[in-house]
Amino acid sequence: MNTYQNYDTIVIGGGPGGSTVATLVAEQGYRVLLLERETEPTFKIGESLIPATYWTFKRLGMLEKLRTSHFPQKYSVQFYSRSGKGSSPFYFFQTNPHESAVTWQVLRSEFDQMLLDNAEEKGVAVRRGVGVREVLFDGDTATGVLTQNADGTRETLNATVIVDSTGQRSLIGRQLKLNTIEPNLKMASLFTHYEGGHRDEGIDEGATLILHTEEKDSWFWSIPLPYNRTSIGVVGELDYLLQNRRDASGKLDTQKIFNEELMKCAPLQHRLEDAKQLFPIQTTKDFSYRASRIAGNNWVLVGDAFGFLDPVYSTGLFLALKSGEMAADVIVEAFQKDNFSETQLGSFGPAFVNGMEAFRKLVYAFYTKKFSFARFLSEYPEHQGGIVDILSGDVFRKDVTHIFPAMAEMCPFPPEMPLG
Ligand SMILES: Cc1cc2nc3c(=O)[nH]c(=O)nc-3n(C[C@H](O)[C@H](O)[C@H](O)COP(=O)(O)OP(=O)(O)OC[C@H]3O[C@@H](n4cnc5c(N)ncnc54)[C@H](O)[C@@H]3O)c2cc1C
Fold first, then answer.
1. Mean pLDDT of the chain
2. pTM over 0.85, yes/no
3. Domain 2-71+106-181+289-352: which topology?
């Protein structure tokens, strides 16, 4: 077993959060090693971006690469009610007449690799096929990582700052038992890709569609992708979608459940009439959780490793990119001040959690059966802009909280989750 101390920062996980923090720290001249356990790009769910990602892409130098990519452009999101009626699309340019109002729908294997390539171009040492088994601590100070390499060997690698961006694997969160599942968002999801299928025209071609099923017990996403593919997934409470659907022998037929839900969603069924399902249904559950701390002495959490809300507003990638950016700034400052304490490295936490909280309230509104955005906006048309701002991800650049007192009259909000 080898021991190295050649890096200022080790970033665990080469998803969007990890690539972002690694790139921005390396750009400031620090030695950054990024470890990704997968040996090559793989399928991942989470394919729809929101406009506010623009600003992180700009810092990363990714805008031109995205503009010249084959990823469909996304101008809007459109909601379909349980009756099958579509809302008018929420066009992001309604509140933001800037090029950042147009974003992209991405194939994750390609998108994540683009970000990793960009990190390498900016000086990050990227090693694929290296999984981290454990973050090493001396008391409550992180000192390094123990790896498990694709060839079976193990190494101890040391660095001054350890960033956990392992996504839902949430390495440090599990190691230090920091994570709490959102009690009222015990959800599951079934998803796949289709080839073909109907798309709207013009600027609506790349829209994300969010469609409720008949009884509002579940909802589907429809996300247009390159290669004439569409990502289709259904989300519902864990008990409803999986637990209560086992057959007499306790087996789950996820394809059957997916088809049954699709039967309850006429507008989507029509769109998929001539489309072909490309691979078996994939399942994920219990994805909504949050850690009680965002940093400690010499360690930081980024992206899903800190927490994930819900797929409904496509905020996961944005929050991974944004926390990557904010974490990079506090890490660079930590090196400048030679202070790697929890107070320094966690100093972006309160602002980050505040922004997340705005999305969280809107997620709870969406899952409140008696709440309807259409009714809310007919009573409070002045809040249309505030909702588009949140759907665009403008929760760090604008104060969007003014919509919540009115909304709270129609749906109960959960207690806020401050950092511990
Ligand atoms: C059903 C569902 C639908 C979603 N839809 C959307 C959507 O439409 N839009 C959106 O923005 N978000 C969506 N998300 C969320 C989105 O997928 C995540 O928020 C996003 O991928 C988080 O990025 P990340 O970099 O934090 O983690 P990830 O993208 O998960 O990256 C983590 C990386 O770490 C690596 N890794 C893990 N463990 C180790 C280890 N021990 N050692 C080394 N490497 C390791 C993994 O291989 C992976 O590459 C969805 C999520 C779910 C569950």
1. 95
2. yes
3. FAD/NAD(P)-binding domain (3.50.50)
Q: What is the mean pLDDT of residues 351-360?
A: 96
Question: Are the C-beta atoms of 230 and 223 separated by less than 8 Å?
Answer: yes
- Residue 251 burial by CB count (10 A; 0-12/13-18/19+): exposed, middle or buried? exposed
3-class secondary-structure state, position 83:
coil
Handedness of CA 51, 56, 59, 65 (dihedral sign): negative
Q: What's the pLDDT score for residue 150?
A: 87
2-71+106-181+289-352 and 187-285 agree in CATH topology: no
- Determine whether the shortest distance from the Cβ of 320 to ligand 1 is under 6 A: yes
Nearest Cα residue to 237 out of 309, 185, 191, 181: 185
Regarding the beta carbon of 20 and ligand 1, being less than 6 Å apart is answered no
Lookup result for tokens 């008990």: 239
Question: Is residue 236 lining ligand 1, measured as CB closer than 6 Å?
Answer: no
Q: How far is CA 59 from CA 217, 315, 325, 329, in A?
A: 40, 19, 9, 12
| DSSP track, 118-144 | HHHHTT-EEEESEEEEEEEEETTEEEE
> Can you name the residues that pair with 194 across neighbouring β-strands?
230, 277
Ligand 1 nearest atom to the CA of residue 318, by list position: 11
Compute, in angstroms, the gap from residue 168 CA to the centroid of ligand 1: 6
- Pocket lining: 132 vs ligand 1, CB cutoff 6 Å: yes
Fold type of domain 187-285: D-Amino Acid Oxidase; Chain A, domain 2 (3.30.9)
Domain boundaries, the chain: 2-71+106-181+289-352, 187-285
DSSP 15: S
d(CA 355, CA 365): 16
pLDDT tens digits along 291-316: 999 999 999 999 999 999 999 999 99
* 141 CB-near residues (< 8 Å, 6+ apart): 296, 297, 298
Give 250-279 pLDDT, tens digit per residue: 899 999 999 999 999 999 999 999 999 999
Whether 46 and 189 have beta carbons less than 8 Å apart is answered as no
